[in-house]
Amino acid sequence: MSLRSQLLKGILEGCILSIIQKETVYGYELSQKLQQYGLNDVSEGSIYPILLRLQKEGLIKGEMKASPSGPKRKYYHLTASGENALCEIQDEWINIQNPVDKLLNRSFYDER
Amino acid sequence: MNAKELIKLNNKKRKGLTKENEEYYDKMLVYIRTNVSVSEQQAEELLMELLDHLIDAQAEGKGAAEIFGENIKNYCDEMIKQLPKEPLKSTAFFIGFLLLQLASLMAIVSGIGGIVVHYFKDSSQTVYVGTALVTLGIVAVIISLDVFLFLKWIQKSVYKITNKIKDFFLLFVLIFVSLAGMVFLPKLIPPFGYAIEAGGFLYLTVGAATLIVLKWLNSKYQITK
After folding, report:
1. Distance, in angstroms, between A10 CA and closest chain B CA?
2. N or C end of chain A: smaller count of CB under 10 Å?
3. Strand, helix or coil for residue A73
């Protein structure tokens, strides 16, 4: 696995939780949303192992429901512990976002 | 929707795939379905989800390898790791049911065999309960082992190009060894346990009665369907 995808893997979980919190989505919708936000490097299929893990940890739940386009789909929604987990991830992200930004940003070298 | 309905729907929807996509998807399907430890319901729900995704993506001109990656085995292993396992109790019950079915079939066959032989020569019809049970055990172990090896072989064929001649040879050896084991190993067991005279008829009646009860149970509770 490349360094980039390793970096992304942990963060992706938070992003997926965040999308599911806003609205219930099914797999294909979720992958489209991630792409729309600009995460083009995420291969579409990689969301399924993550969705399964999040279900196993009880953070999300899937339910078969009729979709607007007709056939039944498995729609995901957040559980109470999923909401908590998302809050924690958001807090952690704020804590590391600034320092990492400063360290990794090219301007860091320019300022020296 | 339960697993059986999902499988039916899956068969129907799969026809909408292009040839390349179906080839790829079939490999995932075989690999996940032959993994007996995962919950059937969860596995079928996942397979349906993946199929729906593939159909949607196909409409936009994308291919399966682009979506799920080039390495089918790794991708499926990653998902199987997260899938809930089939409860041990239900697996044990299912295997027990099949073994009982096998035992009653064996009893019918050896019952008929015993009766036929008895008409031609005056062979003893005595059945030793202990010996009969150990024989059943040996046959059950050999068949379980064969099924296990066969499933592993199918899984392997998903991600590895296999040599047909070598496979055929191995299959031949496996069948030969299994049959030899089933026929000759029981002959090594000394007769022990409770002795029953007129074993042929007893085998036949008990076997047939058990089989009928099992068939009835199966049609009522759909255990193996």
Report:
1. 15
2. C
3. strand
Cα A31 to Cα B126: distance, rounded to the nearest angstrom: 69
Question: Phi, psi at residue B196, to the nearest 5°?
Answer: -120, 125
Asked if B82 lies within 8 A of A53 by C-beta distance, the reply is yes
In the sheet with A60-66, reading across from the earlier edge strand, the strands are: A25-26, A72-78, A60-66
Beta bridge partners of A75: A26, A63
Is the domain spanning A8-101 CATH 1.25.40.10? The answer is no
pLDDT in tens, B23-67: 999 999 999 999 888 998 999 999 999 999 999 999 999 999 999
CA distances from B151 to B31, B88, B127, B156 (A): 9, 19, 35, 9
B-interface mutation test, from A28, A53, A60, A75, most B Cβ less than 10 A away: A28
**Chain B partners of A43 at a C-beta cutoff of 8 Å?**
66-69
Domain boundaries, chain A: 8-101
Average of per-residue pLDDT values in chain B: 87
Distance in angstroms (rounded) separating the CA atoms of residues A84 and A14: 11
Q: How far apart are CA B47 and CA B53, in angstroms?
A: 10
Closest to B52 measured CA to CA, from A60, A40, A45: A45
Among A43, A49, A72, whose Cβ lies nearest the Cβ of B78? A49
